[in-house]
Specification:
With 150 residues, this protein is an all-alpha fold. It contains five helices and no strands. It has helices at 5-20, 33-37, 58-114, 120-128, 135-148. The chain is rod-shaped, with a radius of gyration of 34 Å.
């Protein structure tokens, strides 16, 4: 399982103290092989530890605050990118629908231009279009219905 923030902080503190004493810091990987094999825990958000549970130096508090701020900044940036991607996808979908509508509108206009008003279809369409605000809208609905009918 991953180390707690206090364990990581203690490791970093030990490395700095060893540097001050002139010793090379003892390298320990941040993640063990066991950490990589085990499934991630459900707790992916930062869970603060109350100050009564841990006594940290001001340096440790500052480092922890800095790490927390970096993490929150990364989370905000990731959320901003997700939101931007959703907006771009919505815009593309609207543009796609508008292109389909424009194409249908053009097909309906062509159909109306070729419709003979005194033919059976022309007379039927005249009655059909009474309930629409325009013959173009009626033709668009008619052609759309024809497409959807198997």
């Amino acid at each position: 399982m991953a180390e707690s923030p206090d364990d990581l902080l203690a490791q970093i503190k030990a490395e700095y103290q060893e540097k001050d004493q002139g010793k090379p810091p003892e390298k320990k990987p941040l993640l063990d092989e066991d950490d990589l094999k085990s499934p991630p825990t459900n707790s992916s958000t930062y869970q603060p530890i109350s100050s009564s549970q841990s006594s940290r130096s001001p340096v440790e508090d500052a480092m922890l605050s800095e790490l927390k701020a970096e993490f929150e900044e990364q989370e905000h940036e990731a959320e901003r990118k997700r939101q931007q991607q959703r907006q771009e996808e919505e815009l593309k979908a609207k543009q796609r629908e508008q292109r389909k509508r424009d194409a249908l509108k053009q097909q309906a206009q062509d159909w109306l231009n070729n419709l003979k008003p005194h033919s059976d279809e022309g007379l039927w369409f005249e009655e059909f279009s009474y309930s629409y605000s325009s013959k173009l809208e009626a033709a668009m609905d008619y052609l759309q219905a024809l497409r959807e009918t198997p």
